[in-house]
Amino acid sequence: MARRRPSRSASALQVDLLGWDSSKPDWMPPFVGLVRGQLDRAKAIDNNLFGLQQFVIGKPIWETYLKGEEPDPKVAMTKVKEAVQAEIKKG
User: Fold this and answer.
1) Does the predicted model carry a pTM greater than 0.90?
2) CA distances, 46 to each of 7, 40, 43 (Å)
3) Using an 8 Å Cβ cutoff, are 14 and 51 in contact?
4) Over the chain, what HEC string results?
């Protein structure tokens, strides 16, 4: 049986990406630098009463942004947050 290589940690990925700022490969899409810049501030989503259900509650709302019905993603996500908070208040 072949041994599996351990998965790479985020810090190892960050180290690999650091060198790409100066010599970016041709195949790398432009958004990679933006995503890399967010890794240092990223954190896990806090657990709450709804768990995954919060995404189910918010789906029809955030889909309005994806469909182009709501042009501002911050507005859409604020509405999602308000909808989840309203469900929490219902108990």
Assistant:
1) no
2) 24, 17, 9
3) no
4) CCCCCCCCCHHHHHHHHHHHHCCCCCCCCCCHHHHHHHHCCCCCCCCCCCCCHHHHHHHHHHHHHHCCCCCCHHHHHHHHHHHHHHHHHHC
1, two tokens: 């049986």
Q: What is the pLDDT along the chain (91 residues), one digit of tens a residue?
A: 445 555 555 555 555 555 666 777 888 888 888 888 888 888 887 776 777 888 899 999 999 999 999 999 999 999 999 999 998 898 7
As given in the structure block, the two tokens for residue 18 are 């650091």
Rounded to the nearest 10 degrees, the angle between the axes of helix 53-66 and helix 73-90 is 150
